[in-house]
Recover the amino acids of this structure.
């Protein structure tokens, strides 16, 4: 599995008691900060390019900072940002450091609101300036806002035009910057509206400030902004006056979960992360619904508000296959089900010869699907044993022993050995290193006699298969290598948070184009391009014309061609690729029907627009040039 850069992770905490409460009950006023660290570390799988945190201190005196931020880049970013925060406390005498009143009035990052983010770039942009949270400053506490999110908007141009039309001049063009400015503007208007109301009621000076801060409702701001967002998102935010919120897209594409008791409110991208950090059962952790926001007022009141009308459920199925932690009770079952689904096509691929087949997986994310595949194979073998025993009136002990000794031969054949170091830039050297990312367990099968079946969670680009996996497995001299994908063929880009956006990245697309040429059907490529171009010029995007590239072929035909493209010439074993079906995917993950990367059925107009534009770009920058 070649790693996809994908899915960011979010975490947010609102302490609902004074810091003194946590010092007395848990022995530290840093209770919230420590929980944030756990929430972020447990979501390390969701972002390894950078991390950041923000903190808001309630009731700070004028002239004192009340909003803090720390960010870092790189795989060790979580450790770096929390080490940096703790350096603020290290030189403080122990009695002061453990005094919640001293911490609240004096120490940075000693607050009641915390927000953390783990970043994977979905745009190719990198560097500290792109690491969340983003902040918009103002001398009015209520007008300060910090944002972070797991999202990718498909219509950022439209939002950019909207905010520039009202006079704003954003300094950068990226969805997070644009959302920050859009929400910041609406927050300004909300504060000004409350100012006028308070002043009309006869309040003056700090009375107005306190009145505003008591009545700011981020739900009002979200209801003015979110309806314009096309894409998958979970966006979290804090204001300087102590408002907190998390809002989820109306299709439910990106995941968000929360837990609330009388001490704390917690939000994170994954359920088991909250379970572990808070030591609570799965039933206590709730899922944020489509188009819904969890809004926490500055007085600690927790509200659920419907921000946008829910649309058809399109929760991301890739979350279940690969991205989210497999320790979630439902995800674990679903991944096992995905593996079990593949038993029949696997048996067909090995001509039902279990006796001479070794089964394994490609580490590390396919392991749970492997367990499901293994269980399905054992059930099949048990049926054979039962039939053999029941069809014989009398068995000699040797015959019975032979039947009972039949088993599914499972071995850990592939081992992820090293990580490719990106400082090796030369093509040949880099490819040679890539060929050694995986190692094998020598002697794990009988050469030239055994088949080898290995399951992976998905095959997107096929680069790792071609450069490493097939060649390294072939060293064992199997009779046949069967590569099994627990997900269907990835045929289309994702535009809602996963870094796969160019048509030429997909081995399935390359295979379909190659088949069109081989069979004298290349005219379909040009005709599809002309249709997409015409749709672009009309400004209406209703049809995904990339589907026409795949339409003439069955899934099996595309898979066979992929084998041709991915198998190194020197490979001795016969190679076959077996894919999950769309029907099998939906049967395994019934509550996550978002499948646009497999089917091309995008849930939003922006996705359809961008896939056509990606195809147009491919045609004009690569295909037609050749």
């Amino acid at each position: 599995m070649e790693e996809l850069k994908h899915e960011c992770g979010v975490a947010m905490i609102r302490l609902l008691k004074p810091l003194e409460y946590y010092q007395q009950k848990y022995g530290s006023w840093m209770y919230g900060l420590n929980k944030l660290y756990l929430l972020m570390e447990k979501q390390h799988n969701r972002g390894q390019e950078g991390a950041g945190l923000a903190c808001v201190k309630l009731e700070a005196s004028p002239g004192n900072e009340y909003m803090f931020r720390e960010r870092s880049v790189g795989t060790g970013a979580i450790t770096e940002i929390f080490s940096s925060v703790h350096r603020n406390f290290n030189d403080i005498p122990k009695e002061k450091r453990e005094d919640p009143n001293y911490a609240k009035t004096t120490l940075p990052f000693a607050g009641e609101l915390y927000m953390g983010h783990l970043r994977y770039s979905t745009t190719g942009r990198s560097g500290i300036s792109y690491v969340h949270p983003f902040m918009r400053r103002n001398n009015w506490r209520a007008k300060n806002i910090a944002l972070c999110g797991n999202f990718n908007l498909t219509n950022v141009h439209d939002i950019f035009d909207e905010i520039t039309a009202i006079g704003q001049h954003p300094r950068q063009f990226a969805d997070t910057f644009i959302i920050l400015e859009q929400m910041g503007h609406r927050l300004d208007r909300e504060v000004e509206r409350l100012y006028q109301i308070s002043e009309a009621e006869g309040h003056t000076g700090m009375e107005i400030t306190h009145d505003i801060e008591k009545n700011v409702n981020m739900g009002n701001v979200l209801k003015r902004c979110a309806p314009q967002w096309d894409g998958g998102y979970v966006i979290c935010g804090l204001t300087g006056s102590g408002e907190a919120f998390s809002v989820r897209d109306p299709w439910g594409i990106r995941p968000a979960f929360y837990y609330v008791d009388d001490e704390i409110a917690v939000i994170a991208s994954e359920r088991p992360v909250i379970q572990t950090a808070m030591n609570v059962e799965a039933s206590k952790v709730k899922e944020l619904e489509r188009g819904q926001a969890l809004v926490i007022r500055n007085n600690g009141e927790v509200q659920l508000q419907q921000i946008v009308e829910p649309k058809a459920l399109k929760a991301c199925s890739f979350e279940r296959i690969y991205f989210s932690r497999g320790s979630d009770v439902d995800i674990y079952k679903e991944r096992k089900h995905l593996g079990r689904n593949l038993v029949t096509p696997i048996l067909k691929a090995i001509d039902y010869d279990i006796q001479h087949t070794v089964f394994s997986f490609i580490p590390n994310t396919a392991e749970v699907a492997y367990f499901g595949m293994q269980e399905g194979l054992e059930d099949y073998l048990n049926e054979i044993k039962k039939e053999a025993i029941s069809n014989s009136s009398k068995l000699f002990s040797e015959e019975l022993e032979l039947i009972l000794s039949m088993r599914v031969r499972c071995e850990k054949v592939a081992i992820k050995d090293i990580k490719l170091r990106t400082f090796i830039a030369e093509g040949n050297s880099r490819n040679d290193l890539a060929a050694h990312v995986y190692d094998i367990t020598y002697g794990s099968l009988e050469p030239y006699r055994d088949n080898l079946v290995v399951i992976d969670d998905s095959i997107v680009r096929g680069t790792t298969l071609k450069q490493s996996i097939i060649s390294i497995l072939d060293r064992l001299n199997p009779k046949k290598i069967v590569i099994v994908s627990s997900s269907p063929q990835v045929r289309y880009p994702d535009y809602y948070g996963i870094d796969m956006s160019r048509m030429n990245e997909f081995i399935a697309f390359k295979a379909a184009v190659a088949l069109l040429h081989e069979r004298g059907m290349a005219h379909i490529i040009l005709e599809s391009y002309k249709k997409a171009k015409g749709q672009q010029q009309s400004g209406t995007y209703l049809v995904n014309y990339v589907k026409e590239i795949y339409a003439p072929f069955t899934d099996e035909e595309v898979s066979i061609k992929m084998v041709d493209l991915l198998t190194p010439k020197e490979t001795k074993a016969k190679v076959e690729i077996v894919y999950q079906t769309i029907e099998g995917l939906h049967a395994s993950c019934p509550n996550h029907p978002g499948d646009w990367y497999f089917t091309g059925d995008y849930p939003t107009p922006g996705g359809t627009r961008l896939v056509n534009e990606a195809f147009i770009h491919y045609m004009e920058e690569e295909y037609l040039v050749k």
The CA atoms of residues 257 and 520 lie 51 Å apart.
